[in-house]
Design goal:
CATH class: Mainly Alpha
Structural class: mainly alpha
Shape: globular
Strand order of the largest sheet: 1-2
Helix content: over 70%
Largest sheet: 2 strands, antiparallel
Length: about 325
């Protein structure tokens, strides 16, 4: 297997099929544990999967490209509204709704990415916030299209493959979302380790050096934003179909902030970090909020402080660092 060295760090080109299969099996195994051990919490688990797509999408632009953004929920929310509107107007096939969510996510991703990635640093961050707030404001004002502050309800998708109905216990929604997550994760594993993905990582590490060797930085960042939009669009579509309602919280600043927190907790620049951070944050938030509804946000803040202090590269980064130290000790 060939390697690309960037800033004296070897980066593997391509992942063996065995590792990709192992990733899919791990996700399926964790999903099976949740399905059989927590049958009464499948709605929560489905919501976690939907948000995992948003955090994976954020990881693509922030963790792999170094694009600072605090308005990423716009991609997720626009797709959710598009799917909800299409479903209310008669398009109920779940696969078709997924495609609508992907297309909507790609479109808003390319549009916002074309604007945000033209700048670096603080202007980039401010623009991302502005884009997110603009989308949220439009979602609130266009009541005839989005339902405004009341949200868009009455979303009832049809049967998956014409066989499995979306049931009240969220069993179909959970299994359908889990299957889409597995396929998406395998594709993203291949993508981030492709020459395109490695060059995006190189742009993040040293944009000047990448430019000096002839890399077109801006088109690649916009393209990655489009891919991230597709991933976030899948999450928005699944969330709209499983919840049956789309509200302003799907495009709000708080959703973007939560996604960034989940990514930092798990570890930016690692697809597994996005998944781990989402699962841990959502479960911790759910458990703490249930037991202490008045002070749960303080405990969540304490968790984040501890994670940043003791694991600045995220939990996955901490595990990889410990594994590397143990390997060096054995040698």
């Amino acid at each position: 297997m060939s390697e690309l060295t960037f800033q004296n760090v070897p980066i593997k080109q391509g992942l063996p099929l065995v590792r990709e299969a192992m990733g899919a099996l791990i996700i399926l195994a964790v999903g099976a544990v949740g399905y059989f051990l927590f049958p009464d919490d499948l709605a929560l688990l489905t919501r976690i999967i939907g948000l995992a797509f948003l955090v994976l999408s954020l990881d693509l632009v922030t963790g792999y490209c170094g694009v600072a953004t605090l308005g990423h929920a716009a991609l997720f929310g626009v797709a959710a509204y598009a799917v909800g509107g299409a479903c209310v107007r008669g398009i109920t096939d779940p696969i078709a709704l997924l495609l609508i969510g992907m297309v909507a996510g790609v479109m808003i991703g390319l549009i916002s990415g074309a604007l945000i990635t033209r700048f670096r640093g603080l202007p980039q961050l401010v623009l991302s916030i502005a884009v997110g707030q603009l989308v949220a404001s439009l979602a609130n004002k266009l009541q005839w299209l989005t339902g405004g502050s009341d949200g868009l309800s009455g979303i009832e998708p049809g049967k998956v493959f014409g066989i499995f109905s979306f049931d009240f216990q969220s069993r179909t929604a959970f299994l359908f979302s889990l299957g889409v997550l597995v396929v998406t994760f395998v594709v993203l594993q291949r993508g981030v380790n492709s020459p395109f993905g490695l060059m995006c990582r190189g742009i993040k590490d040293d944009a000047l050096r990448a430019k000096m060797i002839g890399t077109s930085i801006y088109p690649r960042l916009v393209a990655m934003y489009g891919i991230a939009g597709a991933v976030a669009g899948l999450g928005g579509a699944l969330t709209a179909m499983s919840a049956g309602v789309v509200g302003l919280d799907g495009v709000g600043f708080e959703r973007s902030g939560d996604a960034l927190v989940m990514l930092v907790l798990g570890g930016a620049g690692h697809l597994w970090g996005a998944l781990v951070g989402t699962v841990i944050f959502m479960i911790f938030q759910h458990v703490v909020a249930s037991n202490d509804p008045f002070h749960w946000i303080t405990l969540v803040g304490l968790l984040l402080i501890l994670s940043v202090v003791f694991a600045p590269r995220g939990l996955v980064g901490l595990v990889l660092s410990l594994h590397a130290k143990m390997a060096r000790a054995r040698n």
